[in-house]
């Protein structure tokens, strides 16, 4: 007697055979959404994408959306972007969402998807998740911690006489928060910290020159400074640098002698790997929220030679050396 096999049984048998052979099909049909809080060309989030996207490509149908909230800082704009991405999520129905940097959490995850069914992996959330109330049942992530204490300790190791520090950054909310971290850290180790938060390139150049009278100049970010011109800034720095200038931002290394910086690719790699684990069946609530754990060391050899300061030989050997002369 002939037996008639239903098409569903054939498909089930095929999937079972492929599984035994080590193939996995569910992730091929999955949808992954990557929310970038900023815009293409912004160094930090570009590098996060460099870490994440290659790990996701071919593993799921991948879509990337940009909130553009670095260039458009108005609250109404951010809220509108949050609603647009909410609508995209509800219609496209991704199986997992990566939310890169703070505004993706603040304007998408928290107001619209707290403890929902769609799993989220955040990365690049600065310093603490307290503001957002994480963890949620459907959310895990990596917190972005800058090596503030480690950077200050290095500066003092270079010369124990380094006791007067100046912080220079943009007059923005982000930079005021970053300055606050340095104020806490310098009080803890008993050194003096002055600060200048400026709004224009001309003010930044004047403050940079004035700060050469300190033992150590700490550079915050230039993001938010009106009229920023990288070439003008480089020329001014090369003409005036005579003290130890340090930073924890890799994009500030053209203007600093020494840097200890976060590795943005670490955030992207971790978020992508966790997203794939979620696609394989893990729950976000079972994956702990963690801080970043990797640092890069940089020495700007051109400014190092201009400054006349002396750094330890072993540091020059270990650090990534860049040669960023004006006009190069």
Give a quick rundown of the structure:
43% of the residues lie in helices and 21% in strands. It is of the alpha/beta class. The strands form two sheets. A seven-stranded mixed β-sheet has the order 7-6-8-9-10-12-13, sandwiched between helices. Strands 2-1-3-4-5-11 form a six-stranded parallel β-sheet, with helices on both faces.
Whole-number count of domains? 2
Apparent shape: elongated
Secondary-structure element sequence? Answer: HHEHEHEHEEHEHEHEHEEHEEHHE
Per CATH, the class of the largest domain reads Alpha Beta
Counted beta strands: 13
Class by helix and strand content? alpha/beta
CATH topology assignment of the largest domain: Rossmann fold
Please give the alpha-carbon distance between the first and last residues. Answer: 83 Å
Mean pLDDT, to the nearest integer, reads 87
Instruction: Give the count of helical stretches.
Output: 12
Low-confidence stretches: 1-27
Radius of gyration: 24 Å
Helix content: 40-55%
Provide the CATH architecture of the largest domain. 3-Layer(aba) Sandwich
Identify the CATH homologous superfamily of the largest domain: Response regulator
Proportion of residues in β-strands: 15-25%
Largest sheet, in brief, is: 7 strands, mixed
